[in-house]
Amino acid sequence: MINIAKPDIGQDEIEAVTEVMKSGMIASGPQVTEFEKEFASYIGTKHAVAVNSGTAALHAALLANDIGKGDEVITTPFTFIATGNSILFTGAKPVFADIDPISFNIDPDLIEDKITDKTKAIMPVHLYGNPAEMKIIMEIADEYDLAIIEDACQAHGAEYNKKKVGSFGCGAFSFYPTKNMTTGEGGIITTNDDEVAEKARMIRAHGSRERYMHEMLGYNLRMTDISAAIGRVQLKKLDTYIQKRRDNARLLNEEFGDLEGITAPVEDTNARHVYHQYTVRVKNRTKVIESLKDSDIGYGIHYPLPLHKQPYYLSLGYKDNLPLSEKTAEEVISLPVHPALGESELLQVIKAMKRGLSNS
Ligand SMILES: *Cc1c(COP(=O)(O)O)cnc(C)c1O
What we know:
Elements: H1 11-23, H2 30-43, E1 47-51, H3 54-64, E2 72-75, H4 81-89, E3 93-96, E4 119-123, H5 134-144, E5 147-151, E6 159-160, E7 163-164, E8 170-174, E9 187-191, H6 194-204, E10 208-210, E11 213-214, H7 225-256, E12 262-263, E13 271-272, E14 278-282, H8 285-294, H9 311-315, H10 323-331, E15 332-335, H11 343-358
Parallel strand pairs: 2-3, 2-4, 4-5, 5-8
Antiparallel strand pairs: 1-9, 6-7, 6-13, 8-9, 10-11, 12-14, 14-15
The chain binds pyridoxal-5'-phosphate.
Pyridoxal-5'-phosphate is lined by residues 53-55, 79-80, 82-83, 125, 151, 153-154, 174, 176, 187.
């Protein structure tokens, strides 16, 4: 069996956790503080605020940017549910703009049409680890005085014009085990804004700066030192992981580039794609899936149903017609690209794909 994802937990992580366990300080403590410093330095932001999931990072990032009831946030419908839900948690409304069919990210040229006097923020998602078109998004945000909350949950280390994603606006990352680096469960907010960082810290801990003094409504979103210790080890290996993912993707691209019935992912010349997922578009997905299953190769559909078509969103009254997202959801399939793959496994993936495509 070749898995679609495989977290790399080794002796270093085990030792780091054991140290924390022995210290007796297993809740949020010095490991979290150090992890925050190291992650901020890696992304190139002044602050990082660690929390207990990527979803919590998105939620706290929105709240720290004063997004709430009556506000609208423009985002992509072609993403994981947490993108839209985090906006709903705050009482604000997700407004969907359709995607660019090549990058799979929000089409920057469709954003302006969605702006109303209620719009407060744009939330681009760097889907699959491929940076969104930040230059145009920043220009629009500047012109209309909107916040940018980047859903960078799949894009640790991805770059746009040599700058790391999560440093353009307020970033939110996830450390779920399938992501490019993990803390078990976990997330982090990145920002250059002192006030946003301070607010995010308060939102993380019951709205308090000082123990038992509560200035605002907060939650318990704290990361544990056990998680942070894992994250510190993983962060050191992140660039090696990314390089391996990029090498694997290049090998797959070379094979799929000229084949009939498949479109391989594209990396823009100004981008560093980190291939959280290696996602292709295929004409006949059913046949391709059959062939992968026959060869015991794991795959993923990211994502089978855009947010505006989800049952819960239909119940909220969403009636959007976003044809590119809807068509893409029927054609995409993600293939194994993780760093633990050897060449023989990649060759098996290629072989199974070629067979599936020729049967189509
Ligand atoms: C994983 C992910 C999230 C949520 O992160 P969790 O850590 O699972 O809460 C949000 N958005 C996107 C695009 C993701 O891939």
